[in-house]
Amino acid sequence: MFAEVVDLDVLTDWMDSRGLETGSIEEPELITGGTQNILMRFRRGNRSFVFRRPPPHKRANSDETMRREARVLAALAGTAVPHPALVDACPDEGVLGAAFYLMEPVDGFNPSLGLPPLHEGDRAVQRRMGFAMPEAIAALGAVDFNARGLADLGKFDGWAERQVGRWRKQLDSYSALPGYPGPDIPGVDDVGRWLEERRPADARPGLIHGDFHFANVLFRHDGGELAAVVDWELVTIGDPLLDLGHLLCSWPRRGITSVVGFNPPGLPSQDEVIAHYAAHSSRDLGNLLWYRVLACYRLGLILEGTHARACAGLAPKETGDRLHASTVSLFEQALELIG
Q1: How far is CA 258 from CA 105, 112, 120, 248, 279, in A?
Q2: Which of 84, 110, 138, 306: disulfide with 280, CB 3.0–4.6 Å?
């Protein structure tokens, strides 16, 4: 099974060359929960590691994405942002057929996969979980990316102006995949037009995770604090209010299934989340509606890509169908927001 995704002998030799413990790789275990990249936990010597690489059917930018993730995790060391600690990275895809990196394991759980008894039964813990989320993205948005050597991670000039065209171009590119019938997404043109007509002029740069919601975090087992923000593949320089928009567009709502399948009764309301973010950030929230709609648009079109890949046999059909349903739900939410 592991030979299909990583050659353990080659990985062992590479770890030898980097001085990362000795002996054979033991207890390899694939980590579930993601839909794209490969995660494997294992032990070597007296230490545990988590390995991450792109999927077997790589996209054109998959290797560069791994290199960016590793670079950002290294730069976040010592900040207030909860994240997995980087151990080492291999930017050369020639070693294992893809760029990859190793992280320290995180002692935490993904809430979208189910809650432990403490978190399932204690509404106060659930409420704390909800408030820990905006605190994390407020901390990320406050990181001095210039001082951390990340100024060239993304081009901020014209960032807001590029958003609709950037993601619409990505949607149009899916038509090149065999078997994809084309987008069946309610309001995709109307939402894009609304965003173009109401673009804010005062966007401020900062680090953004790019896909921030409950499925991309790990919580501590002993309470409602975050253990780590994970899945950094869309990290870039942008306006951090987009991360708040992503959190809100995926936030569980009464009577509506959450995009991330997580809906405990003790979570704070969206209005409380917004107020909590405002209390932990210096950013002006006057144009937050635009960022909320953009988050629905952007995330919906990204998820549609997995549906297109599933139609082409490059991703599981069940996953593609589920994420297409999420795309439709996100655009319905966007249409509701813009009235």
Answers
A1: 28, 10, 17, 11, 25
A2: 138
CA torsion, ordered 285, 291, 296, 298, to nearest 10 deg: -150
Residue 51 pairs with which residues in a beta bridge?
A: 40, 102
- Backbone angles phi and psi of 156, in degrees to 5: -85, -30
| Residue-range domain boundaries for the chain | 2-103, 111-338
**Paired tokens of 80:** 């207030």
Mean pLDDT of 238-255: 91
Sign of CA dihedral 259, 263, 269, 273: negative
**Residue pair 58/66 in contact by the 8 Å Cβ criterion:** no
CATH number of 111-338: 3.90.1200.10
Q: What is the Cα–Cα distance from 97 to 99, expressed in whole angstroms? A: 7
| Residue 79 tokens, joined | 């900040």
CA-based nearest residue to 237, from 339, 291, 160? 160
**Domain 2-103 sits in which CATH superfamily?**
Phosphorylase Kinase; domain 1 (3.30.200.20)
Give the residues across from 52 on adjacent strands.
Answer: 39, 101
Query: In degrees to the nearest 10, what's the CA dihedral of 292, 150, 65, 104?
Result: -100
How many whole angstroms separate alpha carbon 209 and alpha carbon 76?
Answer: 12
Tokens of 235: 């990290």
Q: Which residues of 296-317 are buried (b: 16+ CB within 10 A; e: fewer)?
A: bbbbbbbbbbbbbbbbeebbee
Q: Please report the pLDDT score of residue 88 as a whole number.
A: 98
Question: For the chain, what percent of residues have pLDDT higher than 90?
Answer: 87
Two tokens, residue 270: 């969206």
Q: Can you tell me the distance from the alpha carbon of 8 to that of 249, in angstroms, rounded to the nearest whole number?
A: 40
Residues 177-195 pLDDT 10s: 999 999 999 999 999 999 9
